[in-house]
Each structure stands twice: as C-alpha cells, then as structure tokens.
C-alpha cells in the first residue's frame, strides 16, 4: 500500500488515480477529518487523519495500514505555520520531511518519493534544457524553492544514512483539473478558466505581468501524476533526483492558441516583448528509467481542461 501525503490535492489526486490504474492500493493522509473527497469518491482508497509535523499521528497510520511505499507531496508552507515566527515556520517545514523519513525507516518502506519543484532552478543562468546536475544557487529567492533545496540536501544525507531509497522529483509548472485558480506564477489556468466561461481572463493575481512570449516547461496534471506514480513503482532508479515535466518550453501564446482552438470565440491580447531564451526541464532521466512520455500536448491539455471546467467543476 502506498501512503500519499497531499493525496487529495491537485497533483496528489492524479498520482493516486495513476497508482490505482496499475493496481496499487493507496492511503491518503489529510489533516482534516479523514473523509474521502468527492473528486476521489469513485476509487477504493483509504483515508487517514494526521499531520506530517506530528510524528505520533504518522506512526498511527503505519499501525492501521501496511505501508510499503510513500509518495510525499504535502508540505508545510512557511506562511501557513509559525504564527509569524519565522524560525518556527522553518522548523515545521523541515520537521515534516524528517518525520516522513523517520516513519519510512520504521515501516521498512522500499522507496520514498518526495516532491521538489522547478523553482529550485531559479537564478540559474543557463538557457535551454535544465538538467538535474546543474549547480543550484544557494541564495534566497522564494520560500518554497528554499525549503525544497534544503529537503533535497537532507534527502541525500538521510538516504546514505538510513538505506532508504529517497528520490526527489522536481515538478514543472503544472496545470489542469483541481489546480490553483489563479496560479500566481503562470497564467495558463486563468486563461483556461476564461475560455471555458467565455469571459475575459483576470490575470491580476499573477506575481508578474505575463507576456505572450514568456515560456516555461508546462505539464498537464494527469501527466505529472502518472510520472510520479512511475517513479514510485519503477523496479530500479539510477538517480536520486528526477525532473518531472513535459520536456519542452510552452509559451503563453501557444496556450492562448490552443484554447482558441477549443473555444473559437476566445481571444486575449497579451503584451509582447523580446523573448528571453527558452528554458525547460531535461527529462532524459525520467524517460530512460521509467519509460514516461507525456500523454497530453498543449492542444489536448487545453481541450481536456476546458471540458472539465464546463462540466461544472471549479476545483
């Protein structure tokens, strides 16, 4: 049985579906009452109430379920913990990961896959394909990639000291059913919502003004979830870190064009500027060690996401 922390969330729910499709039983950890969420009600999953920062609650999960693998997607974000105490917030963020490794050892877990982020490449000057071996800047850029860099370093140390197969997955920009609306870092979800509802997109929630030429490695969430399931189940992995993404750069203009092919009345003029050199995740390791290839290109992702939104789904 695979324990999926954050399994009821955006990416976690798709990973659970991918695991189910290959016959894997899952138990999902959530802090609130352990009720199966509506969007996963069609699956035979188990629910457990607990908090990754509460070691006793994690140990209770192992007493109730035969956990053989862990897909760790939950995170205690710095602004959600500590009541304004920056030191306490950082401690809780790291403690959650340490607790997961602790119970993995106690339960004899074969492999622990922990989510990292494309954000760890922030500040890397290289354009083109970003490989896992690139040196990462250690200066502070944003709380989330800061925490992920710390846990990646701890993962290497703890894997060596415990013998657990600890793998970190650097997840690309991800969009699709259940995602953030708006996502603060890229406009694709907000553009899709506007196309589905035949309205003008509200892009005011983004951290930066989006331009037509801006591009990133954009992966549909169903592909992201499947890639994580493949990492969890692969008989052997040769590396400790894997990029999880589409392996190509997708511009905002391409997203707009894909949405317009689904909804011909959709039209938005994003401002233009000289394009910066494109960057994307090098997914060679992922392809070679798991056989992963994306099932959704931009057009297929746009069509699927708009259909989901038009079916009355908002989350």
From TrEMBL:
Domain (NAD-dependent epimerase/dehydratase) ranges: 2-245
Gene3D superfamilies: NAD(P)-binding Rossmann-like Domain
InterPro entries xrefs: Epimerase_deHydtase, NAD(P)-bd_dom_sf
Transmembrane region(s): none
Family in the record: Belongs to the NAD(P)-dependent epimerase/dehydratase family.
Protein name: NAD-dependent epimerase/dehydratase family protein
Species this protein is from: Streptacidiphilus monticola
């Amino acid at each position: 049985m695979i324990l999926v922390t954050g399994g009821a969330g955006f990416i976690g729910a798709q990973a659970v579906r991918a695991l189910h499709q290959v016959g894997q039983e899952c138990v999902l950890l959530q802090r609130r009452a352990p009720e199966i969420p509506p969007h996963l009600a069609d699956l035979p999953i188990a629910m457990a109430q607990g908090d990754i920062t509460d070691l006793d609650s994690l140990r209770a999960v192992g007493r109730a379920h035969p956990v053989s693998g862990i897909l760790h997607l939950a995170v205690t974000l710095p602004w959600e913990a500590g009541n304004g105490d920056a030191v306490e917030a950082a401690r809780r963020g790291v403690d959650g990961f340490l607790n997961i490794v602790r119970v993995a050892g106690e339960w004899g877990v074969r492999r622990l896959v922990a989510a990292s982020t494309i954000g760890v490449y922030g500040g890397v000057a290289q354009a083109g394909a970003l490989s896992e071996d690139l040196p990462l800047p250690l200066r502070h850029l944003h709380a989330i990639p800061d925490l992920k860099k710390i846990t990646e370093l701890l993962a290497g140390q703890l894997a060596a000291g415990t013998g657990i197969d600890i793998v970190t997955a650097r997840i690309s920009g991800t969009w699709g059913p259940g995602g953030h609306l708006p996502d603060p870092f890229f406009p694709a979800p907000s553009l899709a919502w506007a196309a589905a509802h035949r309205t003008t997109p509200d892009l005011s929630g983004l951290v930066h003004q989006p331009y037509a030429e801006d591009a990133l490695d954009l992966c549909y969430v169903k592909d992201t979830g499947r890639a994580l399931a493949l990492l969890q189940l692969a008989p052997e992995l040769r590396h400790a870190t894997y990029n999880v993404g589409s392996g190509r750069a997708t511009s905002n203009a391409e997203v707009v064009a894909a949405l317009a092919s689904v909804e011909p009345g959709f039209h938005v003029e994003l401002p233009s500027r000289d394009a910066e050199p494109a960057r994307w995740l090098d997914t060679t390791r992922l392809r070679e060690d798991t056989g992963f290839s994306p099932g959704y290109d931009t057009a297929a992702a746009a069509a699927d996401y708009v259909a989901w939104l038009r079916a009355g789904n908002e989350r």
